[in-house]
Amino acid sequence: MRSLFPVTEATVVPGSEKGADEAREPRSDQDREQSSGPVRERSSAEDREWSLDELADRYAYPPGGDPWLRANMVSTLDGAAQHDGRSQPISSEADMRIFGTLRALADVVLVGAETVRLEGYRPARARDAFAARRAAAGQGPAPAIAIVSGSLDLDFTLPLFTEPLVPTLILTGAEAPAHRVRAAEDAGARVLVAGDTARVDPAAAVRALADLGLTRLLTEGGPQLLGQLVAADVLDELCLTVSPMLTAGDAQRIGGGPCVEVPKRLHLASLLEEDGFLFCRYRRS
């Protein structure tokens, strides 16, 4: 894995300290003839496997107690967020290492009900590699999973409800079916009301989680949920894996739903690369 941005001593090409201006100066014909030999590509950063601690430091949440919502998504070169309904076929080993790191840093993972059904979501597990870091941050052994669902049309016999290390949360609206709320609570889930109608209000969902002391927020989609978070302007950070694959077809993009009136501008915070996969991290300015 290589770090391509931000630029540090480790990412600068040897000899580039002479300055970009000098490199842009026009050359004479004689200079061109003398430099017309084969060009050797030089790596702009050391290519090696990063430790989990290094990844955790790179993806650390901002200091302070304010809620911070980041999304972690993957997309192919032609914009597909999944293949045959799942994201795993367009992922990689390095992508899964970052996926696990982001989970290990979070207080709670937000996920849409459809994604729970399609991806076969299971409870987050405790990982020894992050135990000391989580304890020092005052976190429990693993993040909670928070399902966003207006209808609560969920299978409460799934391990997400029968085997969680931390009780599963369900974010729903005030008009959610009462019998489904009771069924969720009977299954051991904690139901949080976030919205005055049957739909979940994204801003209210963030507040409801923050009221429980869950401020390091991570969402893994799916596309409909991410689109709602973008439209509500509550997304602070996007961790986007660009997969060097083409799928064609009609798969969803990473963000669905109605188009926002004005595109949201984010700024590049870091960029890693491994085996052609780009691991981009964008933040609010």
From TrEMBL:
Keywords: NADP, Oxidoreductase. Residues 67-268 form the Bacterial bifunctional deaminase-reductase C-terminal domain. Pathway: Cofactor biosynthesis; riboflavin biosynthesis. Residues 1-48 are annotated as: Disordered. Transmembrane segments: none annotated. Signal peptide: none annotated. Residues 18-48 have a biased composition (Basic and acidic residues). GO terms for biological process: riboflavin biosynthetic process. It comes from the Bacteria. Pfam families: RibD_C. GO terms for molecular function: 5-amino-6-(5-phosphoribosylamino)uracil reductase activity. This is Pyrimidine reductase, riboflavin biosynthesis. The lineage of its organism: Bacteria, Bacillati, Actinomycetota, Actinomycetes, Kitasatosporales.
